[in-house]
Write a structure and sequence with these properties.
The complex is a heterodimer. Chain A is an alpha/beta fold. Chain A has helices spanning about 45-55, 80-85, 110-120, 125-135, 145, 155-170, 185-200, 215-220, 240-245, 250-255, and strands at about 5-15, 20-30, 35-40, 60-70, 75, 90-95, 175-180, 205-210, 225-230, 230-235, 305-310, 310-315. An 8-stranded mixed sheet of chain A has the order 6-7-8-3-9-10-12-11, sandwiched between helices. Chain A has a 4-stranded antiparallel sheet with strand order 2-1-4-5, with helices on one face. In chain A, helix 3 (about 110-120) crosses helix 4 and helix 4 packs across helix 6. Chain B has one domain (about 30-60, about 75-300): MetI-like (MetI-like fold). In chain B, helix 11 packs parallel to helix 12 (about 250-260). Chain B starts with a helix and ends in a 5-residue tail after the last helix. By secondary structure, chain B is mainly alpha-helical. Classes of the chains: A alpha/beta, B mainly alpha. The interface of A and B includes residues 89, 155 and 169 of A.
């Protein structure tokens, strides 16, 4: 059986020769229908770029290599014609910034209806009706009135839900969510995630969820891909990530989540330093400089992504496989 | 209805349609609070009213000559602003002159804008090769004195109102292309454009539904500043005799004829001069006020 989306060896490079910057390296990813795959990492790890690359929205200076198969069909072609036919209809995307992702010149109802008319070829009136239905589906109160509102009249959370409504307008088979909850407060965040979960269950939609919030991942995701400076460092089903995190980076991320049991005075754990600039990657393991358990041989060669247990991959010379329960 | 209002209060984001209206209203207030902008606005409205109502206002037929009453001075009996060398009523000619002058100014701006905006958007949106070609052509037009274009058009097709409009429109194209291109360059990096492409919008719909509506205010300001330029240009062209042709009254050609008599009957030159001055100034003041009122940093 072919996966909904199968990404193999995806590389995104900017520039060429000695100045070449590999912003995404050798990414392997597969998404099944009804499955939520989380892409996790700090800022600047290439998560958003990966999403843009899948949609073919990368700037012209980006060089993309590898293979992206949608239902077994190669969609990474030279001119981006294949993806053009799928955008919005089969594969939809919700952007990070709800404040700026809507057209300020039209009402939100118009914008949802536009997408419906474009893809489903419905007449104007019916599209407007369906737009209101979609607003209701993303739990916007009084959708009839809200449909007539301009984006600047809505709060960030509402705009994000409007973005969701646009993405859902044509029942996409694959939904890419680029940090959908970053700009929202916790209650709206929960509502948005609820909609995603519902969609996965009811419409059997495959979801790629990009986030840096491991708390969100634990609730929702089936598989987790941890990215660091453009590379995949760990990839596993969600239970393994939480029960047996193997890469020191993953462990660092998990340790950095504040816990209720920590007490008020305890300093939050952190990973020292920042993500290296992709142009100046250290030789050997890219995480070596910030790693708490770095050893001499770590600086020699780049560790490959290897299977350490069933379905659990890790790119580390000294993966820690002992069982350790991380409570959230 | 009660259920709806309950919802509204729970979520706490009531839709303020009034807010939007009030915002526009506030911009209008800002525009009118400035004395220069207000004066300019009144001037613009008056001149447009005069041009539209010309047949009702003008006391005489502007082209009817009366050889028994040549060069009568202003405030003389029967002619408020006197008569010219053919005994035509100056007031009537000024009133009708507003028509042809405004027509040239406004139509030239419309022609220039309609041609230039799509070109500028295409240039900024597609970038690359297309962009370089368009920008080089723009440079060439910019390097061409518009008078040469106007006189050249008049030489080839004969002097006429249409050719004056065409020449003045062409003269505006480069700056409008640059403005719309610049706006496009800024807008295309915004997320809602990317979001539109991601939801499958075609280039056509990106250009006409996303780019164009969001650059309306700079374009409106540009037009309001371009119109006085074009009015001045049209006066210049009719002064040189390549614009509106006699006997149709135009301020520029009135000025040109008055040259001959400037030492004896200076008002024949002064009056159309004042008309040109007042019109250009009104539009300029109004345009400046409009630019300030539409400035997003204001709100």
């Amino acid at each position: 059986m072919t996966s909904l989306l199968e990404v193999e060896g995806l590389c995104v490079t900017f520039g060429s020769g000695a100045g070449a910057v590999r912003a995404v390296r050798d990414l392997d990813l597969s998404v099944e229908s009804g499955e939520i795959v989380a892409l996790v990492g700090e800022s600047g790890c290439g998560k958003s770029l990966t999403a843009l690359t899948l949609m073919r929205l990368t700037p012209p200076s980006a060089r993309v290599q590898g293979s992206v198969k949608y239902r077994g069909d190669q969609i990474l072609d030279d001119k981006g014609l294949k993806i053009k036919a799928l955008r919005g209809k089969e594969i939809a995307m919700v952007f990070q910034e709800p404040m700026t992702s809507l057209n300020p010149s039209y009402t939100v109802g118009d914008q949802i209806a536009e997408s419906i008319r474009l893809h489903l070829k419905l007449p104007r009136k019916q599209a407007a009706k369906q737009a209101i239905e979609l607003l209701r589906r993303v739990r916007i109160a009084a959708p009839e009135q809200r449909a007539k509102a301009y984006p600047h009249q809505l709060s960030g959370g509402m705009r994000q839900r409007v973005m969701m409504a646009i993405a859902l307008s044509c029942d996409p088979k694959l939904l890419i969510l680029d940090e959908p909850t970053t700009a929202l407060d916790v209650t709206t965040q929960a509502q948005v995630l609820e909609i995603v979960d519902e969609l996965r269950k009811e419409a059997n939609t495959g979801v790629i969820l990009i986030t840096h919030d491991l708390g969100v991942v634990a609730d929702l995701a089936d598989k987790v891909v941890i990215m660091y400076a453009g590379s995949t460092v760990e990839k596993a089903p969600v239970e393994s990530i939480y029960s047996r995190p193997s890469h020191p980076y993953t462990r660092g991320l998990l340790a950095a989540i504040p816990r209720r049991t920590d007490g008020v005075r305890k300093r939050l754990d952190e990973i020292p330093g920042t993500v290296p600039i992709v142009r100046e990657l250290p030789s050997g393991c890219i995480f070596a400089d910030r790693c708490s358990c770095v050893e001499v041989d770590c600086r020699g060669a780049v560790p490959k992504l290897e299977m350490i247990e069933d379905e659990h991959y890790c790119a580390c010379w000294h993966p820690q496989i002992e069982v350790e329960t991380v409570s959230l | 209805m009660s259920a709806v209002s309950a919802d509204v209060s729970i979520v706490g984001h009531p839709v303020h349609n009034q807010v939007h209206v009030e915002k526009r209203y506030r911009r209008l207030k800002v525009l009118l609070r400035r004395p220069t902008a207000l004066a300019g606005g009144i001037g613009v409205v008056l001149i447009i009213a005069v041009a539209i109502l010309a047949p009702l206002i003008s006391p005489y037929n502007p082209t009817a000559s009366n050889f028994s009453d040549l060069f009568s001075s202003p405030f003389s009996t029967g002619h408020l602003l006197g008569t010219d060398q053919l005994g035509r009523d100056t007031l009537s000619r000024l009133v009708y002159g507003a028509r042809s002058t405004l027509e040239v100014g406004v139509l030239a701006t419309i022609v220039g804008t309609i041609v230039a905006v799509p070109v500028g958007i295409i240039s900024g949106y597609y970038r690359g090769f297309v962009d370089s070609i368009i920008m080089r052509i723009t440079d060439v037009i910019l390097a061409f004195p518009f008078l040469v274009i106007a006189v050249g058009l008049a030489a080839i097709f004969g002097p006429s109102l249409q050719n004056a409009i065409l020449a003045l429109g062409i003269a505006q194209i480069p700056s409008v292309i640059r403005i719309s291109r610049g706006e496009t360059l800024g807008l295309r990096e915004q997320e809602f454009i990317q979001a539109a492409i991601a939801s499958g919008a075609s280039d056509f719909s990106v250009i006409f539904r996303y780019l164009l509506p969001n650059m309306m205010s700079p374009l409106v300001v540009q037009a309001s500043i371009a119109i006085p330029g074009a009015i001045l240009g049209s006066a210049l062209l009719s002064f040189l005799g390549v614009g509106v042709q006699p006997p149709t009254p135009a301020w520029g050609s009135m000025l040109a004829t008055a040259q001959t008599y400037i030492y004896q009957d200076y008002w024949l030159a002064v009056l159309p001069g004042i008309a040109i001055l007042v019109t250009t100034l009104s539009f300029n003041f109004f345009g400046d006020g409009l630019r300030d009122a539409l400035d997003p940093s204001l709100s």
